[in-house]
Amino acid sequence: MKALSSVAILFMVLFLAQCTSDKSGGQQLTPDEEKAYLEKGKAIAESTFAALSGKLATAMEEGGVEGAVQYCNLAAMPLVDSLSKANNATIRRTSQKPRNPLDAPSEWEAEILAGFQQSTAKGEKAMPRLKILDNNKVAFAAPIILQPLCMKCHGTVGTDIAEADYAIIKKLYPKDEAVGYKPGELRGMWSIVFEQ
User: Fold this and answer.
1) Neighbours of 139 (CB within 10 A)
2) Which domains occur in the chain, in start order?
């Protein structure tokens, strides 16, 4: 009888372990690994944001909305790509309402964006999080909250965005969905997948 209970306990442990595994085949991070990935993800997102926003502010000062939109269209992606290589990660910005269709969220990104949206709708702060992907790579996601400066390109057309400026945006991004935001709203998220 004792051997039977040991087998039953072993079976239960294995069963419960299977129930808590994720789609990645059960890989889990230790608390130290989680902390390290979160810190690294935050640092990469902050440095990428600083690089992009600094260049974007200069483009806005020199050429108004047209200069800023042209900078985003021509230089933002190469800058992010170079930062991706420097950090041995894939860095992107994604949104439920992308300006560029190439920035539409993947399935896992859409799931996290929905969670961020639920948090902000409840008045809670959306917090960065990690996800282990199917290929066992670790992904970091952090919310992008709209800042007042962003209203000239992402606010309401006719109120925050001049009609002439929106015509320029639509010329460069004919499938634009990234308008109608208010300061403090969730604009999208940083998606950083660490290479192994």
Assistant:
1) 21
2) 30-145+185-194 (3.30.450)
